[in-house]
Amino acid sequence: MKEESRLVEKTVTKELPESIRGEVVFDNVQFEYPSRPGETTLKNLSFTISPQKMTAVVGDSGAGKSTIIKLIMRMYDVKEGAVYIDGHDVRDVSLGSLHNRISIVPQTPDLFNASVKENIAYGVDREVSMDEIIAAAKLANCYDFIMKFSNKFDTIVGNRGTQLSVGQKQRLAIARAAIRKPQVLLLDEATSALDAENEALVSTALEKLMIGRTTIVVAHRLCTIQNADEVICMKDGAVIESGRYAELIEKKGGFFKLVQKQMTAGE
Ligand SMILES: Nc1ncnc2c1ncn2[C@@H]1O[C@H](COP(=O)(O)OP(=O)(O)OP(=O)(O)O)[C@@H](O)[C@H]1O
Ligand SMILES: [Mg+2]
Prior knowledge:
Mean pLDDT: 90
Strand content: 15-25%
Order of helices and strands: EEEHEEHEHHHHEHEEEHH
Radius of gyration: 19 Å
Helix content: 25-40%
CATH superfamily: P-loop containing nucleotide triphosphate hydrolases
CATH architecture: 3-Layer(aba) Sandwich
Bound molecules: adenosine-5'-triphosphate, magnesium ion
C-alpha cells in the first residue's frame, strides 16, 4: 500500500461522465509489463466491446486475458495505441472517476482482515447503508452463508479472507462489485475449480449482476459462455478470432480447438 504508483495522472483531467454507455475500445494496443521491457505482452490489439452486452474473452493461459482487464482499469499504461471508454481515452480521465464507473471481480479476489460488511462496502466513496449491503449480499448469493456465521455481517474474514472458502470469497467479491452499480463490469473467472454447487451459486450471482451492464468475462470454463453476445479468442497477446459462440464453433478454428481441448481434458 505504501508503493508509489508508476502511473502519471495528467495535471488536468476530466471526469468520466456518470452516464456512460459502457463501450470499450482497444485501438491498436501494444503493451509490455514495466518489469519485462522488450517483451511484448499485447500486440496491436484492436477490438470494440458493445455497451450493455456480454463479451467473453478466452484463450490459453498466458494469452493476455487478465492483462486486458488491467488495461481497462488503467492499472498500467499502454505502450502504443489507446484504450477508450465511450470515446474517452482512459489517460484523459481521472482515475477516481474511471474506477467509479467500473467494477472488477478479479481472478483472485483480495479481501481485507475486516468484517464481511466492511469488505462488501470497501472503496465506495459515499455513505453505504446496511440495507444496500444486504441487497448486494443477496444479489451475490452471499446472504445465506453470512447469516449462518454467529456474528453475521460483523464476522471477520481473516487475512486475505483465509477464513472463507474460495466460492464464498468470490461471491463476496461479486457483492463488492454489485454495490457500486457499475456501468462496466469486469470478471476475471478464477481458474481454481469450484464444486458444482458453488459454481452454480457464483454463476447465477453473476447473471443477475450482468443485466443492463457492459460485461467482460474472462472465461476458463467455456461451457459457461454459450450465452455471450460476443466471444474474443486470444493467443499470444493477439486476437485470433471473434464472433458469436455458435459461429466460432462452426468455423472450426482456434476457438473450436480450445473447446475440444477442454472437453477431452474433462473426460
Ligand atoms: N505483473 C506482471 N509482470 C510481468 N509480466 C506479467 C505480469 N502479469 C502477467 N505477465 C505476463 O503477461 C502474459 C499475459 O499474462 P495474463 O495474466 O494476461 O494471462 P492470462 O491470459 O490471464 O492467463 P491465465 O488464463 O493463466 O489467467 C504472460 O506471459 C505473463 O507471464
Ligand atoms: Mg488471467
